[in-house]
Amino acid sequence: MMRQPISLIALDVDRTTLTDDYRLLPAVVEAVARAAEADVQVVAATARAPNALRDIAAALGLRGPSVCLNGAWTGTILPDEAVMERGVAMDLTRTKILIAEAEAAGLNPCWFTEAGWHALSEGHLVEREARATQTEPVLTPSLECFGEPVFKVLCLETERSGDALDRLMVRFTDEFSFVRSDRHLIEITANGVSKQGAIAALTRRLGVDRESVAAIGDSENDLDLIRWAGFGVAMGNGTEVVKRAADWVTWSNAHAGAAFAIDTIIAANRAAICPAGIRT
């Protein structure tokens, strides 16, 4: 239940703002515009890199800070550049070892810098990420001379990789944070990095109380944020663990559930009452 009016909404992107086939429904765009009119700030909190969020942020009319790469990057995304305000890079030496071992195990790793993303070879994950984000990787066959800061590594389980992902997580568990964004996809960042941590840091800077924050998401990488926020909302298409952790469950992404959640929050603010505890 909402304990006080909401002034900031942290909004996940994939499978929350977007449909499963990566469409942005007009109802969601319109709801974000209504939030701005009601003095409720919407902040994207996404696993996407800044360049993969740019067109979505523009379509939604988001002009303030965004949280990208699962919390490893916070900044302002402009039409021609992204200005980082807070970044937490991974240890480059150990990250290169992680990537090499993931590639050898058949996990087809991709890694993300501030400017773009890279892969050692073509594969299922590279095709999936390019299709989802409408961005192209830089194929980087050797890690030997690579020197840019890395903010996130992405690995995809395949039939060929077997239990390699679990073994990778055990091997590097004390060095990096691992979180699943779907059943076969793992995202790796510097230890302690999360959407929750980035949003908490942002709200402290903005002077926004935690109880005035709502979070809307669908999967494991949203879980800590949904638990932390004053009002946590799970998507109807979200995982069961996210739904159990949330204060309220909205419609699915196919039915513009993010828009329904935003409008419900706006209405509750105006009426100074809590949204009905309906679970879908």
Task: Give a short synopsis of this structure.
One of its GO terms (molecular function) is magnesium ion binding. The chain has 280 residues and is of the alpha/beta class.
Walk me through this protein's architecture.
This is Cof-type HAD-IIB family hydrolase. InterPro entries: Cof, HAD-like_sf, HAD-SF_hydro_IIB, HAD_sf. GO terms for molecular function: magnesium ion binding; phosphatase activity. It holds the Pfam family Hydrolase_3. Keywords: Hydrolase. This protein is an alpha/beta fold and 280 residues long. It has 2 domains: 8-87 and 194-271, 3-Layer(aba) Sandwich (Rossmann fold); 92-190, Hypothetical Protein, Haloacid Dehalogenase-like Hydrolase, Chain: A, domain 2. The chain contains 9 helices and 14 strands. The chain has helices at residues 26-37, 50-60, 92-104, 124-133, 164-171, 195-206, 220-228, 240-245, 257-271; strands at 8-11, 41-44, 65-68, 73-77, 82-87, 110-112, 117-119, 138-139, 152-156, 176-182, 185-190, 213-217, 231-234, 248-249. The strands form 3 sheets. A 6-stranded mixed β-sheet has the order 8-7-6-9-11-10. A 5-stranded parallel β-sheet has the order 2-1-12-13-14. A 3-stranded antiparallel β-sheet has the order 3-4-5. It starts with 7 loop residues before the first strand and ends in a 9-residue tail after the last helix.
SSE layout and pairings?
Layout lengths: L7 E4 L14 H12 L3 E4 L5 H11 L4 E4 L4 E5 L4 E6 L4 H13 L5 E3 L4 E3 L4 H10 L4 E2 L12 E5 L7 H8 L4 E7 L2 E6 L4 H12 L6 E5 L2 H9 L2 E4 L5 H6 L2 E2 L7 H15 L9
Parallel strand pairs: 1-2, 1-12, 7-8, 12-13, 13-14
Antiparallel strand pairs: 3-4, 4-5, 6-7, 6-9, 9-11, 10-11
